Amino acid sequence: MSVTIKQGEFFSLLGPSGCGKTTLLRIIAGFDYPDHGRVLFDNKDILPIPPDKRQSNTIFQTYALFPHLTVYENIAFPLRLRKLGKDEIDERVKHYVHMVQLDDHLYKKPSMLSGGQKQRVAIARALINEPSVLLLDEPLSALDAKLRQNLLVELDDIHDKVGITFIYVTHDQSEALGVSDRIAVMDKGKILQIGTPYEIYEAPATRFVAQFIGETNIFSCTVLSCEPFENEYMIVVDVPALGTTINVTDLEPQEVGSEFDFTVRPEKIRITLNPPRSTAAGLNVFKGVVEEPVYSGFQSKYYVKLDDIPTAPLMKAFKQHTVFLEDGPDIEWKDSVYLSWTAVDGYLVKDVDR
User: Fold this and answer.
1) Confidence category of residue 352, pLDDT binned at 50, 70, 90
2) How many CA atoms lie within 13 A of 188 on its CB side?
3) With b meaning 16 or more CB within 10 Å and e meaning fewer, what string describes 280-315?
4) d(CA 129, CA 29)
């Protein structure tokens, strides 16, 4: 793989367990060495430089705090190794303690702290040496969901304040989408796509990326026709799994007979009890029965079995709850429904494995 990370960027390595994220991070940190290749910091190859001499610090999933030292002493430890003066150490420790909002816990030991507070100590200790690059190896995965979300916002705020490069390893798509300037999606030791969160989600480069980032409906398809449409192209594709054709737009013309994967996100699909009134060009409409409704508070997820297509997989559609629901969602189990989406809401993905 080859990747360039910009100075000051919040860059995430995203992928399933075992895809190589942590290995790549350990190579950058100096804990592992590659058989071939180079790691450049400002165009200087740092592979011969030991980990403690590189301009990088690492935050681990397990915190790695000294249990017998207080918060103050844990954060001051790197500066004491450098034999800085007492006053300078005190000033810098209190600055970073304030940044991670631990002023009231300065003299507590790790055993007296929550998981989120321990991770903040680890972040402050890593930042106090003022590295050029901060490496974060799934630092929030041991925390509960609510705390993880709160600390993620704080971590993004810290990045904005210190302005150094963050390289963040995670398998959680929502984490990467929420804080990253750019994301590299990895699988089996390869980078499949690099882009902004918007590019990764809305315009996936491969079938794997489309399925791994969020939820989607995805089918193999073949191009039947391609005609100019406004500033794009209206393409009709045959979808064997659905036993019919689907309309989709693309910025580029596609040859008749070309094979793709068609994907449409569940939140792009409108689910209604009555036929859609939309007259949008290329509107796709299917009728089906709700096999499984899943109420999630702010939205409901519906898994719909399409009519007259016994071999078709269940279609996923999400409906946001934007008003008060006194009697619950209006669409329930076994209701007959209509699924509809416009041609511009779908996307064609070239399957690189074909």
Assistant:
1) low
2) 4
3) eebebebebebeebeeeeebbbbbbebeeeeebeeb
4) 15
Residues 6+ apart with CB under 8 A from 191: 1, 3, 184, 185
Residue 232: beta bridge partners? 229
Report DSSP letters for 224-270, one per residue.
Answer: EEEEEETTEEEEEEEETTTTEEEEEEESS---TT-EEEEEE-GGGSE
pLDDT band at 101 (very low <50, low <70, confident <90, very high): confident
Task: CATH number for 215-349: choose from 3.30.559.30, 1.20.810.10, 3.40.30.10, 2.40.50.140.
Answer: 2.40.50.140
Tell me the HSE value of 308 on the side-chain side, using a 13 A CA sphere.
4
pLDDT in tens, 141-197: 877 777 788 888 888 988 998 899 999 999 989 899 999 999 999 999 999 999 999
**pLDDT given for residue 351 in this prediction:** 65
- Cross-strand pairs, 348: 262
Tokens coding 116 = 């989120």
Q: What are phi and psi of 93, to 5 degrees?
A: -60, -45
Provide φ and ψ at 102, rounded to 5°: -120, 25
Three-class DSSP category at 96: helix
| CATH code 3.40.50.300 for 10-207 | yes
Beta strands in 142-216 (DSSP E): 165-170, 182-187, 190-195
Residues in the chain: 354
CA distance 236 to 270: 20
For strand 165-170 and strand 133-137, is the pairing parallel, antiparallel, or unpaired?
parallel
Break the chain into its structural domains and give their ranges: 10-207, 215-349
d(CA 205, CA 222): 17
pTM for this predicted structure? 0.89
